[in-house]
């Protein structure tokens, strides 16, 4: 009789745990719900809900190690990447850490961006299918790491979008690479430059999501997000309005319905489990190869640009990023953006960033403090 196979450990470190990242090995199930002995799905949670699951430096390390470990786990069928709570999957990098540690220190931020790049690459290189369970907002860097995943299943109260040019950065941590591949050049341009958030229904219509489920429960029944258009395709001016916010009395009625309901992610979890079960009933190596091939358009763009992006983002911490992250971190909830017009006027007049410009364009409350 042959002795049991003794496996080698291919993980980078023995302890992959890091603060702010939770890893859970859940039993895999067949489509009928039957638990499969000895097989699992690894759930990786961004666990920083008080800051909308924005990732700190330690959390970035935790995601890299968790993705690598799940990729190596012989008993794992799928990886589910999600966030704690029901408010946010992830809103990007931790702006408090950015403003208080990295702002004005390009060399430090360059080292941080090496870690960020490795996190995106770890998702794109995972040997298992990666499903983004979008439990809430997926904004900025959160949208970027979400798009690096192979599938995205969202609850329909979630919001999506980029924030770079509004907060002192450029969405070159994946958005400018992935969005043109996923939604086309024009929609990518609007999303990345204008930084206007869009609904989960709009994201599904654009092709950003694999699947979409309701999360609002009113009187025991799930209802679609009542604050966005989910049926009407055009408004009175001929503009596409599917997935756009409702207006007027319809919006007020939707808000009132929201207050009557509660958020329940049971249907989201069921749909994620359903997708994992479908993948379970495929040849594992054939599935891995198929995913690797389908990742190539995103990977080609990502690998071509990530190092140039890292260098630029580091240097930008001396100018616009420093001002933008400081404004977001220290401004009020109602006023977290710099005075863009004043900035453009002063730059046009030849004022240098070396001097008072940073302070002059901060939100009014902070300037008067």
How much helical structure, as a percent, in the residues? Answer: 40-55%
Tell me what the CATH architecture of the largest domain is: Alpha-Beta Complex
Query: What is the total number of structural domains?
Result: 3
What is the CATH domain class of the largest domain?
Alpha Beta
Q: Label the overall shape.
A: globular
Average pLDDT figure: 95
Largest sheet: 6 strands, mixed
User: How many angstroms separate the termini?
Assistant: 78 Å
The spatial strand order of the largest sheet comes to 1-2-3-5-7-10
Structural class given helices, strands, pairing? alpha/beta
Low-pLDDT runs: none
Rg, nearest Å:
22 Å
Number of strands: 13
What is CATH's topology name of the largest domain? 2-enoyl-CoA Hydratase, Chain A, domain 1
Q: Can you say what the CATH homologous superfamily of the largest domain is?
A: 2-enoyl-CoA Hydratase, Chain A, domain 1
Total count of helical runs of at least 4 residues? 15
> Would you list the SSEs in sequence order as H and E?
EEHEEHHEEHEEHHHEHEEEHEHHHHHH
Kindly describe this structure.
- The strands form three sheets. Strands 1-2-3-5-7-10 form a six-stranded mixed beta sheet, with helices on both faces. A four-stranded mixed beta sheet has the order 4-6-8-9. It has a three-stranded antiparallel beta sheet with strand order 12-11-13, covered by helices on one side.
- It is globular.
- The longest helix has 33 residues, at 284-316.
- Helix 1 (57-72) links the parallel strand 2 and strand 3 (76-83).
- With 369 residues, the protein is of the alpha/beta class.
- It has 15 helices and 13 strands.
- It has helices at residues 57-72, 95-102, 106-124, 141-147, 164-167, 175-183, 185-194, 200-206, 248-260, 266-280, 284-316, 320-330, 340-348, 357-360, 364-368, and strands spanning 21-29, 35-46, 76-83, 88-90, 130-134, 137-139, 151-155, 159-161, 198-199, 211-213, 216-218, 221-223, 262-263.
- 43% of the residues are buried.
- It folds into three domains: 21-215 and 264-316, 2-enoyl-CoA Hydratase, Chain A, domain 1; 224-262, no CATH class; 335-368, no CATH class.
């Amino acid at each position: 009789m042959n002795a049991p196979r003794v496996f080698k450990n291919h993980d980078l470190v023995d302890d992959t745990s890091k603060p702010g990242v939770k890893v859970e090995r859940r039993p895999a199930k067949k489509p009928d719900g039957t638990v499969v002995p000895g097989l699992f799905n690894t759930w990786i949670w961004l666990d920083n809900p008080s800051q909308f699951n924005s990732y700190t430096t330690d959390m970035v390390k935790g995601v890299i190690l968790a993705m690598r470990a799940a990729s190596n786990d012989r008993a794992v069928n799928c990886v589910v990447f999600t966030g704690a709570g029901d408010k946010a999957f992830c809103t990007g990098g931790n702006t408090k850490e950015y403003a208080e540690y990295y702002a004005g220190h390009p060399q430090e931020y360059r080292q941080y961006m090496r870690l960020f790049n490795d996190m995106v690459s770890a998702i794109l290189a995972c040997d298992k299918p990666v499903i983004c369970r979008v439990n809430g907002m997926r904004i900025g860097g959160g949208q970027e790491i979400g798009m690096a995943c192979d599938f995205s299943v969202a609850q329909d109260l979630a919001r999506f979008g980029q924030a770079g040019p509004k907060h002192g950065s450029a969405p070159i941590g994946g958005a400018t690479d992935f969005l043109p591949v996923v939604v086309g050049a024009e929609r990518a341009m609007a999303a990345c430059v204008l930084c206007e958030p869009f609904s989960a229904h709009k994201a599904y219509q654009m092709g950003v999501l694999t699947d979409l489920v309701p999360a609002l429960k009113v009187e025991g029944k799930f209802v679609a997000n009542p604050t966005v258009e989910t049926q009407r395709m055009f408004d009175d001016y001929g503009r596409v309005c599917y997935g756009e916010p409702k207006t007027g009395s319809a919006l007020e009625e939707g808000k009132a319905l929201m207050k009557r309901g509660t958020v329940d992610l049971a249907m989201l979890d069921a749909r994620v489990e359903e997708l994992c079960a479908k993948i379970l009933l495929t040849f594992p190596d054939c599935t891995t190869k198929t995913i690797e091939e389908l990742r190539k358009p995103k990977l080609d763009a990502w690998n071509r640009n990530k190092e140039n992006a890292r260098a630029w983002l580091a240097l930008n911490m001396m100018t616009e990023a420093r001002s933008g992250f400081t404004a977001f971190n220290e401004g009020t909830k109602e006023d977290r953006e710099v005075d863009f017009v004043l900035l453009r006027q002063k730059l046009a007049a030849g004022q240098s960033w070396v001097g008072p410009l940073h302070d002059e364009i901060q939100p009014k409350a902070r300037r008067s403090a």
